[in-house]
Amino acid sequence: MSSRRQILRFGAATGIVAASGAGAGYFRTQAAAAEVRPAPSATPSARPVATPPAFSVPLSVPPTLRPSKVTADTDYYEITIGKSHANIVPGARTEVLTYQGSYPGPTIRARSGRKVVIKQRNHLDEPASVHLHGGSVEQASDGSPMTPIKSGGSQIYTYPNLQPHANLWMHDHTHHLESEHLYRGLANLYLLTDRIEQSLPLPSGRYDVPLMLSDVRLDSKGQLVYEMDDAFNRTTLLVNGRPRPYFKVDARKYRFRLVNTSNLRMFWLSLSDGTPLTVIGADGGLLPAPYETERLLISPGERADLIIDFSKYAPGTQLILKNDLPPGDPSLIGEVIRFDVGRKVRDTSSVPATLRTLPAVPEADTTRQMVMYMDEVGAGTNAFLNGKAFDAGRIDIDIKHGSTEEWILTNTSQTIPHNFHTHLVQFRVTGRNGGPATGFETGLKDTVLLWPGEYVTLRATFDTYRGVFPYHCHMVDHSAMGMMAQMRIA
C-alpha cells in the first residue's frame, strides 16, 4: 500500500491531503488538463444540481436476494437488468440502471462448495454483460466484454464457488459500455462465505453491513450526467446509492464490507475522532490477522472489510467516516457517512488475533513485465497495456495451466494513477517499489493500485479453469479507452 509519508507528500502538491508520492503533481496537472479540454455544453440540464446537505438522508442497505429455486447443491436466481428510478436527490426521480430494480443491486449471499446459477435477462435497449469480480469461473460465465447479452435476450451464468470465502461483487463488463453502465448503477455485492469465516465470532446479522462507495455528477433536474474520464465533476458521493447518508448504530461492534464501485475515484478513509480503523479483510476474504490503521486507501474495484467498535462512545455521539482524497471541493467530497451512536447493547462478537492461514507464496515458473500507460494532458484518450490498446481478436499472453507466474506491473504515466485487475484468479502482492507488501495487500487480492511511476510485483497460480480471460485497469474509464488485454490459459 502507499505509505502515509507518500500520501502526505502527494497532498502537498495540491494543498489538500491526498495520495501517493510518485504522482506528486497528479491533481495539479489534472487541473491544468481540465482547463485545456473543451468544457461541457452549458445547457440548463448540464448545470450541477445542489445535492442534499451532508447527513440529511438515512443509509439504505441493499436487500438480500432470495433464490427462486433451491436444490441439494445449487441455488438458482433470476435477475432482470433494466432501467428504473432512484431518489438520489429528494424531490427528483433519477433514472438509473439496475439489477432486479434495486439501486445498487441486491446482495447475493453464497457458500463455498455450493453452486449458484443465475439467469440474467437484459431488458435494456443495448447489450449488457455481468462479470463476477474476483470470482473463479469458467470462461462462458466470466461476463466477457465481447460476449454480452443482447437486448431482449437472456444468459445463464454458473458460479461453482469452489474458491474460499471472499467479498466479491458483480458489474457490467460490455466493452465500450462498461464504464457508463457501471456509473449508472449496474453493480451489486456477492458475498461468498465458508466454514473458516463462519467459525469466527465476528459481528453478524444486522451488524454486518455492506457499504458500496461511488460518486456521480448530477444535472439541474437531478439526472446522472455521464462523460468519459470525468473525475473532477463527479463530486456527489454515494453510499449504497444515498448521498452522504447517516446511519444509526448501536453502541457495539459492527462489520462493514466496503467496495469501491466508482469508475475513477479513490477514497482515503478515516474516522473523524482519529480512532484507528480495524481492517480484517481485502478482496479475497479475511487477512491472516487484523491490523489497525489511521487511514485506509481503497481504489476502484477494491474491497476492504472493517470492524468499528462503537461501544466506547456515549449515546448521541456522531462519528464521521471522512475522505481526505481529491479531486473535488473538500466540502463535497470530504465526508462519506455519519454514524449516529445509540444505546449500548449486548455484544458477544470479537475479533480474533488470527483470522485465517494463507499458504506460502509459491515460486514463479515465469516472470512477465507489464506496463500501464495512457495519453496525458491534451494528447487524446487512448490507454495501453504493454504499448497496445485492447484488441478482442488478439491473445496477449499464453499461460500454462497449473503454472505460477510473477508479474511486475509498472505505471509509466507521469500524472495519472491506474490500478490492475485480473479475472479468474486471486493473487498475492509480493512487493511494492522494492519493499514488501503491507496492510491489506498482505491478503488475497484481485485488484491493486499503482500511482504514477510505481511498480508492484504479484504472483498468481493458474490451476483452475482453461480459456481466455481479460486483465485490465479497473479505473473503468481507462479500461474502456483500451487499457485491457487477454490471457489464454491452456
From TrEMBL:
The keyword Oxidoreductase applies. Keywords: Metal-binding, Oxidoreductase. Monomer. It is an enzyme of class 1 (oxidoreductase). Gene3D superfamilies: Cupredoxins - blue copper proteins (2.60.40.420). This is Multicopper oxidase CueO. SUPFAM superfamilies: Cupredoxins.
